[in-house]
Design brief:
The complex is a heterodimer. Chain A has helices spanning 21-26, 31-59, 73-109, 117-141, 153-156, 169-197, 210-241, 255-289, 296-309, 325-353, 362-385, 387-393, 397-427, 433-459, 473-506, 547-556. Chain A is an all-alpha fold. Chain A has a single domain (21-556), classed as Cytochrome c oxidase-like, subunit I domain (Cytochrome C Oxidase, Chain A, Up-down Bundle). The longest helix of chain A is centred in the first third of the chain and has 37 residues, at 73-109. Chain B has helices spanning 16-47, 49-57, 61-86, 90-120, 128-132, 149-185, 194-219. Classes of the chains: A mainly alpha, B mainly alpha. At the A-B interface, helix 6 and helix 7 of A face helix 1 and helix 6 of B.
Chain lengths: 565, 221
């Protein structure tokens, strides 16, 4: 009989009596299986949302006068609402922490599992339940409030779906978001306790890999911010069910108060989306440069200070609401502060590349793409953080382009790069690097072709959330360029899935391999990892990115390196 | 998977201190959840100060004080139960837990009478559909008899916040029932009293939230 130390997590698991098949996954408390399940679910929803985004862009191909109508005008709101709800609540917020955090946090710190494995499984079930509830809700009821659910519209709207069914889908989606929120909170608590209590012997805080640091910072935001938005969204449900007047000016309520409560969570939440991706980039860049990351401590501290400062700047989403001038000036000022730790990270990554022997592997391409896109996204954020320019750019396509540069070009590129980086570790398989490089080429080109025109469109006054636009040559040309960009991007996304499926079917590699010659702890286990991750409890003696020591260990045969070295 | 599937011993990781730390974090999220309600209360109180004062006078301070004493007493019996368990006196621990549950239930019953008195004065929340049919409270829904804005908000917040708190009391009481059953079965015992301790922590949280609700609604009129 095989023992726990010799069998892969793909063949055995803990938590239930089912040994094979679907049930053995859905009831498993093994952090690696839960991570893989999140990945599968999440990317399924991601694909659905990409298709919706594709249709939304296609709708903009011709101006209003042409009579072009891919999405009927009364459904357009539902389309972008479903696109945004899936992308934000189901993909990008839980994305990196739930997929790669679950899988790699215990491996990186040398633990056997997370602190509360059963709670971890509960988080997944909550996620799955909430996700299905949100998607079914909007399909049956056609909610069109956007993902921000801003009252009074979200309280008064009674929508009818594209199938003609009437259904209180706004309440369903709000309740779903509440349930998803509890899944996120529990995951956050789980990771914080795991990091505090389960680090391997010798793994001090400043010997933790930077991805673990970023997960730590993101987890604190999840725990401290999500409950507020959860109860705020429930207040909207209550308003719809039995009107109290929480946010109804007719009863003395204040709709602006909702926006404050909403953004108190939802602004820090953008750092939940971006921090783990920054962590992944901090893993990929030193690995593919084969040298220690520049300014390890400053990156770790920057993660935590981004989380801290990110808490104090929520009202920069509300400059156009008529908030007091004093508050606006303070929030604008604080917004610029968050650029400092972010820029520290970018400079550290660039400095790591200096005089390094850079391997342009697919994950490295995505990491460099992240740095490029995220810099554009971050700097255009400075435009929006300035009070006067924000009034001009507010509610235009400029904003849409800005947050797609941070969330897709940044966070999603980081997640996808992270999956390309960790794919051989997760499955013991290697994808075709040619296909993966082509994936990056299409995604990077398509992404920039899609969103650069939207900056210009927004600057010239194209409002966001509009179904169509007047036939002005500037608008028509840029819209068409942007739509063509979306086609290239969709090809890239489809190619990404093909690369993964092809890799899973064909790319068997040795379980002893460390294909990127990475120095961090997770690469020292088997690929795919065995059930309890490490045959013997690891003892950490060196810095995670100490490549000189790592090369000496590989030479001495005490660590696994790449096979060709 | 081509290889033969194997069953392996489940990974047993028991870290009492880590679990306690995690539970404290969870309690903190509960506080934040109520924190949002308290912010809403604070904002509307400062916007409608007079209306809040007038409406608060209609609440019965005597009943509120009684309920506060009951909850504080239940927190005491909860601590006594845990102490008895740690001292190995399982029977005493069980009876103290029962008393705590009883006090929690008494709180709910008194709260029920209090709400009922409000309903009798036409102060109640009703679903949107029922309001559309004209079954809503004439005092809290738009119409000639509607109270001033601030009072409508006060009663709405009163029902929602004390209702959410009552829901937490119910959850706490049910949990205590489960803990009682586990103590009887012996799976919670003097050497393994972590669940009882966490149940107690949760109960104290519910208590602490009431300690803030009570002055805000009953005393600062």
């Amino acid at each position: 009989m095989e023992t726990a130390s010799s069998t892969s997590y793909l063949n055995s698991h803990t938590g239930s009596r089912w040994t094979t098949g679907f049930m053995s996954w859905i009831t498993s408390t093994d952090h690696k299986r839960i991570g893989v399940m999140y990945g599968f679910t999440m990317f399924s929803f991601f694909f659905l949302a990409v298709c919706l985004g594709f249709l939304i862009k296609l709708q903009k191909f011709y101006p209003a006068a042409s009579g072009w109508e891919i999405i009927p005008v009364e459904w357009y709101g539902s389309f972008f609402t479903l696109h945004s709800v899936i992308m934000i609540f189901l993909f990008i917020v839980p994305g990196a922490p739930a997929v790669l955090g679950n899988f790699f946090l215990p491996l990186q710190i040398g633990a056997k599992d997370v602190a509360f494995p059963r709670v971890n499984l509960l988080s997944y079930w909550l996620y799955l339940f909430g996700a299905i509830m949100a998607v079914v809700g909007i399909l049956l009821g056609g909610a069109d409030t956007g993902w921000t659910f801003t009252p009074p519209y979200s309280v008064t709207t009674r929508t009818i779906s594209m199938f003609g069914t009437q259904f209180d889908s706004v309440s369903w989606m709000l309740t779903a978001a509440f349930i998803l929120g509890w899944g996120t909170i529990l995951t956050g608590i789980n990771f914080i306790i795991t990091i505090h209590r389960m680090r391997a012997k010798g793994m001090s805080y400043f010997k933790m890999p930077l991805f673990s640091w970023s997960i730590y910072a993101a987890s604190w935001i999840q725990v401290l911010a999500t409950p507020v938005v959860g109860i705020t969204l429930l207040m909207i449900v209550l308003e719809r069910m039995m009107p109290v007047g929480f946010f109804d000016p007719n009863k003395g309520g204040d709709p602006i108060l909702f926006q404050h409560l909403f953004w108190i969570y939802s602004h820090p939440a953008v750092y939940v989306m971006i921090l783990p991706s920054m962590g992944l980039v901090s893993e990929i860049i030193p690995t593919n440069s084969q040298k220690p990351i520049f300014g390890y401590k400053s990156i770790a501290i920057a993660s935590c200070s981004i989380a801290g400062v990110g808490y104090l700047i929520w009202a920069h989403h509300m400059f156009a609401t008529g908030m007091s001038d004093v508050a606006s000036i303070i929030f604008s000022f604080l917004t610029f502060f968050v650029a400092i730790p972010t820029a520290i990270k970018v400079f550290n990554w660039i400095a790591t590349l200096y005089k390094a022997s850079i391997a342009l592997t697919p994950p490295m391409l995505f990491a460099l793409g992240f740095v490029f896109n995220f810099s554009i996204g971050g700097l255009t954020g400075m435009f929006l953080g300035s009070l006067s320019t924000d009034i001009h750019l507010h509610d235009t396509d400029f904003i849409v382009a800005h947050f797609h540069y941070t969330m897709f070009g940044g966070a999603a590129f980081g997640i996808i790069g992270g999956i390309f980086h960790y794919f051989p570790k997760m499955f013991g398989k290697m994808y075709s690097k040619k296909l993966a490089t082509a994936t990056f080429g299409f995604m990077f080109t398509g992404f920039n072709a899609l969103f650069i025109p939207m900056f210009i469109l927004g600057f010239y006054g194209m409002p966001r959330r509009y179904h169509t636009y007047p036939d002005i040559p500037l608008f028509t040309n840029l819209q068409q360029a942007s739509t063509i960009g979306s086609w290239i991007l969709v090809v890239g996304v489809i190619l990404m899935f093909i690369t993964w499926i092809h890799g899973l079917r064909k790319g068997q590699i040795s379980s002893e391999e460390n294909p990127w010659n990475s120095s961090t702890l997770e690469w020292q286990t088997a690929s795919p990892p065995t059930l309890y991750n490490f045959d013997e409890d690891p003892i950490v003696t060196r810095h995670p990115y100490d490549y000189d020591a790592f090369r000496a260990e590989v030479k001495a045969g005490t660590s696994k390196g790449a096979r060709d070295e | 998977m081509s290889e033969q599937a194997v069953t392996v011993e489940a990974f047993h990781h028991h870290d009492e201190e880590g679990t306690r730390l995690g539970f404290w974090l969870f309690l903190f999220t509960e506080l934040l959840l109520f924190g949002a309600f308290f912010i809403v209360y604070g904002v509307y109180r400062s916007a409608h100060l007079n209306d809040f004062k007038i409406a608060a006078e209609s609440l019965n301070t005597g009943i509120g004080t009684t309920n506060t004493i009951i909850l504080l007493a239940s927190s005491l019996t909860m601590v006594l139960s845990l102490n008895a368990m740690k001292a190995g006196r399982v029977k005493l621990a069980k009876s103290m837990l029962l008393i705590t549950m009883g006090l929690g239930t008494t709180f709910l019953i008194i709260k029920g009478f209090e709400w009922n008195a409000k309903f009798a004065h036409h102060l109640f929340l009703q679903t949107s559909a029922a309001i559309a049919e004209g079954k809503g409270s004439p005092l809290l829904t738009p119409g000639p008899e509607m109270l001033p804005d601030g009072q409508v908000l006060f009663y709405g917040l009163y029902f929602i916040m004390t209702g959410t708190h009552a829901l937490h009391i119910i959850i706490g009481a049910v949990w205590m029932g489960i803990v009682y059953f586990w103590i009887s079965k012996g799976s919670i015992n003097p050497d393994n009293a972590g669940v009882l301790e966490r149940c107690g922590l949760y109960w104290h949280l519910v208590d602490v939230i009431w300690i803030f609700l009570f002055p805000l609604y009953y005393l600062v009129a």
